[in-house]
C-alpha cells in the first residue's frame, strides 16, 4: 500500500480499504495478457450503471464463476451456464452482461485463432501520454477519440458491451492512460 503523508491526495477510494488498495496498487497500472485484459473488459461491462466498489466486492465471485477468466473455457459456456450464473449471488446477475462475457470470450478465441491478440488490439489504441496530469476529476474525459476507436475495433472483432465510455474506463484501469489527478499518491 502506498505510504501517505497527512497532505496526500487519493483520486478515489478513501472511504473503503478495498477501494483504496485498488486505487493505490492496481488502477492505472499497465495490464498485459489476453486473459488479464479479458477479465478487465468483463468487469468494466459488469460495472456499467453500478458502483465500481460493487464489482470489487464481487471480484472473487466473478473469478470463480467465470473459470478464472480463462477465455477458452468461458467460450464453451452454454445456456445451462447462463442459468447457473444467473443464480449465483456471488456475481452481478444481469443476463445481458453475462451473455456479453461469454460472447466476448468467443470473440477473443476467434481473434487468437486468426493470429491476433486482445493485448495487441487494446494497446494499439493507447493515446499519447498527457503533458500535464488532470488537476481535478472535472478534467478527466468520459471518452476520447482513442476509446471510440477501440470500441469500434472491438465491435468489428465480435465483442459486445464495449462502448466508448466503458472502453475509456478500461483504458484508465489497465494503464493505457494515467488519469490520477495531480498530487495523487499513485500518480506516475
Tell me what you see in this structure:
This protein has 188 residues and is an all-alpha fold. It has one domain (17-173): Endonuclease III, domain 1 (Orthogonal Bundle), CATH 1.10.340. Helix content is 51%, strand content 0%. It contains nine helices and no strands. It has helices at residues 17-25, 34-47, 52-65, 71-74, 79-86, 95-113, 118-123, 145-156, 164-173. It is globular.
In CATH, the homologous superfamily goes by the name Hypothetical protein, domain 2
Determine Rg (CA atoms, Å): 17 Å
Share of helical residues: 40-55%
Tell me what the CATH architecture is: Orthogonal Bundle
Q: Could you say which overall geometry the principal axes of the C-alpha atoms support?
A: globular
Number of strands: 0
Strand-residue proportion: under 5%
Poorly predicted runs of 5 or more residues: 1-6
Look up the CATH topology. Answer: Endonuclease III, domain 1
Terminal CA distance: 15 Å
Q: Count helical runs.
A: 9
Q: Total domains, how many?
A: 1
What's the average pLDDT?
A: 94
Instruction: Quickly give the structural class.
Output: mainly alpha
The largest pleated sheet is described as:
none
The first-level CATH class is given as Mainly Alpha
Order of helices and strands: HHHHHHHHH
SSE layout:
Elements: H1 17-25, H2 34-47, H3 52-65, H4 71-74, H5 79-86, H6 95-113, H7 118-123, H8 145-156, H9 164-173
Helix pairs in contact: 2-3, 2-6, 2-9, 8-9
Key features?
Endonuclease III, domain 1, mainly alpha, 188 residues, 9 helices, disordered N terminus, single chain, globular
